[in-house]
Amino acid sequence: MKQISFATHAPTELVDLTSRVREAIQSSCTSRGLCFVYSPHTTAGVILNSASDPETVQDILDDLDRLVPTRVNFKHTLDTPGDAAGHVKLALIGNSVLVPVVKHELALGHSQSILFFEFDGPRDREVYVAVVATANNE
User: Fold this and answer.
1) CA of 131: how far to CAs of 1, 86, 95, 137, in Å?
2) pTM of the model
3) Helix axes 54-67, 84-93, angle to 10 degrees
């Protein structure tokens, strides 16, 4: 398993992890299998989506903000109430993705990327990448 560490720099932000996950696959020497990418955070998640047009990412962030605005009347107060919206946004997008590995490469669609969404930054963050080999029938 590989840990990828990085910093976010804004309250809400996108980090494209695709190239770093590809490096993890190459270092694993796995030609066929599954790649699991997991975020251990409660206010940041991981999705598959398009990163080729930055406006797509901004649309996702804008609509998540519209659906779950930061407000002062969240019920949870043990953490900082300002991060409550981040918890709800994570519940909507999820904290992990699973991608097939074929011929030492991520089997992503044409425009797909592995994207980390920050909802309570800036922070130091990490994700875990596990690559599991399956029977090689190539």
Assistant:
1) 7, 28, 17, 17
2) 0.89
3) 120
Distances (CA, A) of 60 to 19, 23, 106: 21, 27, 23
Which helix or strand (DSSP H or E) is residue 54 part of?
Answer: helix 54-67
Q: Distance between CA atoms of 122 and 45, rounded to whole angstroms?
A: 14
pLDDT in tens, the chain (138 residues): 999 999 999 999 999 999 999 999 999 989 999 999 999 999 999 999 998 888 888 899 999 999 988 766 656 555 555 678 888 899 999 999 999 999 999 999 999 999 999 999 999 999 999 999 987 655
Q: CA–CA separation, 102 vs 19, rounded Å?
A: 16
Q: Which two tokens stand for residue 25?
A: 């696959």
Q: Are 35 and 98 in contact (CB under 8 A)?
A: yes
